[in-house]
């Protein structure tokens, strides 16, 4: 399975849930005495959960290097076999975990085993990401690169609202789905990391690092990278002129279901 770096997770989650938390309403976090955030990574969602819930919020991940970045209680473990007894916590939640796992149904069933009250998953639909940019070629090239990523993925990276089927299969009840659009905007004045990202586009370094996650022959990917670098040089020119603007929208779907606490 794909490994994630702490910088990548911080960067891609920057500003997420800062504008609105309406889509988290069905988790009823203010009523929860305990919450488990599975596949918490560097704890970007865990921090939001701690702001919304007065109870105990624990982050769980299989990667100890990522867990070292999480403030507060953490557990090392596998989402497919959680190191907790049945009905151990009120709410079990994950964000951008199921899209990376080959068997989301089994993972949701495991969440249902451990949850006393509710299960929630927050998963992106990576096929529906959109990009608007002041550099004409950028949106179309981002679409081409994304298609290579979708074709190369071994898991359902466009799962999104489709997770509700796993909820029904796990016997979860009162299933609801809400959408949250995570918008990432680049506009002047640019942060140092945004200038660095433009430089990496111009060198093709960003695409080269994603090589392993993309489908296509060496020749096809080299051709994509050449066009990408030309686009990146335009991005860099506009950044230097202070005219570059880009908006990327990643749709996430929040699926929530009630856990059956009467297990007989
Ligand atoms: C895309 S990251 C999402 C991190 C975090 N939830 C967020 O939204 O920023 C996926 C995370 O799931 C973790 N992960 C992957 N497979 C796992 C498994 N079987 N058990 C526990 N964690 C897992 C990875 O280590 C990584 O931290």
TrEMBL record:
<dbReference type="InterPro" id="IPR029063">
    <property type="entry name" value="SAM-dependent_MTases_sf"/>
</dbReference>
<dbReference type="InterPro" id="IPR013216">
    <property type="entry name" value="Methyltransf_11"/>
</dbReference>
<keyword id="KW-0808">Transferase</keyword>
<keyword id="KW-0489">Methyltransferase</keyword>
<protein>
    <submittedName>
        <fullName>SAM-dependent methyltransferase</fullName>
    </submittedName>
</protein>
<dbReference type="GO" id="GO:0032259">
    <property type="term" value="P:methylation"/>
</dbReference>
<dbReference type="GO" id="GO:0008757">
    <property type="term" value="F:S-adenosylmethionine-dependent methyltransferase activity"/>
</dbReference>
<feature type="domain" description="Methyltransferase type 11">
    <location>
        <begin position="36"/>
        <end position="117"/>
    </location>
</feature>
<dbReference type="Pfam" id="PF08241">
    <property type="entry name" value="Methyltransf_11"/>
</dbReference>
